[in-house]
Design brief:
Number of strands: 15
Number of helices: 14
Order of helices and strands: EHEHHHHEHEEEHEEHHEEEHEHHEHEEH
Radius of gyration: 25 Å
Helix content: 25-40%
Shape: globular
Distance between the termini: 43 Å
Length: 439
């Protein structure tokens, strides 16, 4: 029998009714032997996440102010869950331990991690499973970097001792035992790390959506679901704004060759989206797998005659960005021109300084920075098998009266990225979707 690791997000464990759904899902398949929970999320749009309230507690403790009022609200949420589930364990003692610990540690990582910790203890009691504190098995080095191989060894040895276990997500510890958290959304990473250490056959990531959609439903009406995509396609779509799965959660399971299944706790019969290492025939039902995009970029265009013959020209352009701590997104180029796409949030107040540095070090014939750019990535392994994909895409934009300001296609032909005016972003995204899907 294979092993499955199931990670449940905050919306999946927001209250007692959601806990019941999780228990039913977990016990429905005996292969689900390890569970990774997040802290309780929002119960409704006006609710506050437990993690956000824990950060409030830390901020008050840091200023030597009372955080009892905020923590009382946190405690009430957990006590309601325990009471509604008719659990018989000392939740009051656990909450008192955490309340005091926040004041002693005065650490944002310790405070924030307690949401997953308490939820993990509750879920372990509800399932009747063992509890493994992530602090003991998820390791970071002294600089705060995740120690993947050390963790894999320690965690693998510990999991082997437990037939069933709950391991809270989001946190681990420094070598000295002090709690260290991943970035927000890091429970996805924890789940993938546990799946790798357990040598699972499948990593299930349960959330409140039925997998990935081919486009943003806020822009495209009723976009189709993605049945299957590869880790490379996921990386491209996540980078361009698809937010179902934490980007860093790709790597542990991808490295181990473990497929990931995105599922919906509120619709467990839906197969969701399967993320695999290599594409299969299901990937080619459409030439494209998905479309995603971001707004607010600046295009810096540098032109100089005989640029291609000038040794180190491109390096000096990029050095100007590095000197001011700015990273670039894309680098479309021609024989005598070089364009650098930079996110506006990266440029901030440094645009004029960067342009002046490029002018000093490269002496271009012209240099221009134009903002108001949006990027749209059309992604899919099926594109390489389908003739006329690019023509179809640009015809759709032409017919929608959208001007293309930039084109960038990787040599792998996995994606085509176009830059359009921010005002045309949604029109362009819908036009591309309709050209490939609604035909």
């Amino acid at each position: 029998m294979g092993i499955r690791v199931a990670k449940f997000g905050g919306s999946s464990l927001a209250d007692a009714s959601q806990f019941r759904k999780v228990k039913e899902i977990v016990l429905a398949d005996p292969r689900r032997v390890y569970v990774v929970p997040s802290a309780p999320g929002k119960r409704n749009s006006s609710d506050i996440k437990i993690t956000d309230m824990l950060y409030q507690c830390y901020a008050l403790a840091e200023r030597e102010q009372s955080y009892d009022e905020v923590f009382d609200r946190i405690a009430q949420r957990y006590m309601e869950i325990v009471q509604d589930l008719n659990l018989d364990f000392d939740i009051h003692g656990l909450l008192d331990e955490v309340r005091k610990g926040i004041g002693r540690a005065k650490s944002p990582d310790y405070s924030a991690s307690r949401g997953e910790y308490i939820n993990g203890v509750i879920l372990a009691n509800y399932l009747g499973w063992d509890f493994i504190d992530a602090k003991d098995v998820i390791k970071f080095d002294r600089q705060g970097n995740f120690a993947a191989e050390w963790t894999n060894e320690v965690l693998g040895e510990e999991l082997a001792k437990h037939q069933h276990a709950v391991i809270p997500g989001f946190y681990g510890s420094f070598p000295n035992g002090e709690v260290r958290t991943f970035s927000r959304g890091g429970s996805d990473i924890s789940g993938a790390v546990v799946a790798r250490a357990a040598r699972a056959d499948l990593y299930e990531n349960w959330t409140d959506v039925s997998g990935f959609l081919m486009a943003d439903p806020r822009i495209v009406e009723n976009p189709r679901s993605i049945e299957q995509l590869t880790y490379r396609e996921l990386r491209e779509l996540s980078y361009m704004g698809a937010t179902v799965l934490h980007e860093d959660a790709i790597f542990p399971v991808h490295k181990a060759g473990i497929p990931t299944n995105i599922r919906n706790t509120n619709d467990p019969s839906h197969p969701g989206t399967m993320i695999v290492a290599q594409p299969s025939e299901v990937s080619y039902r459409h030439p494209i797998t998905g479309i995603a995009g971001h707004k607010d970029f600046t295009l810096i265009s540098v032109e100089k005659a005989m640029m291609n013959a000038e040794l180190g020209f491109g390096r000096r352009v990029l050095q100007a960005l590095e000197d001011f701590g700015v990273s670039f997104e894309h680098l479309p180029s021609g024989i005598d021109s070089m364009c650098v796409v930079v996110a506006d949030k990266e440029l901030k107040q440094r645009k004029d300084q960067i342009i002046e540095r490029i002018r000093e070090t490269c002496q271009p014939d012209s240099i221009e920075a134009s903002s108001g750019l949006a990027l749209i990535a059309t992604v899919g392994y099926g594109m390489v098998r389908t003739r006329g994909t690019a023509a179809r895409l640009f015809q759709a934009l032409y017919e929608a009266n959208v001007n293309v300001r930039m084109i960038d296609q990787g040599s792998s032909e996995l994606n085509i990225i176009v830059g359009v005016d921010v005002a045309d972003f949604e029109i362009a995204l819908r036009a591309i979707y309709n050209a490939f899907v609604n035909v």
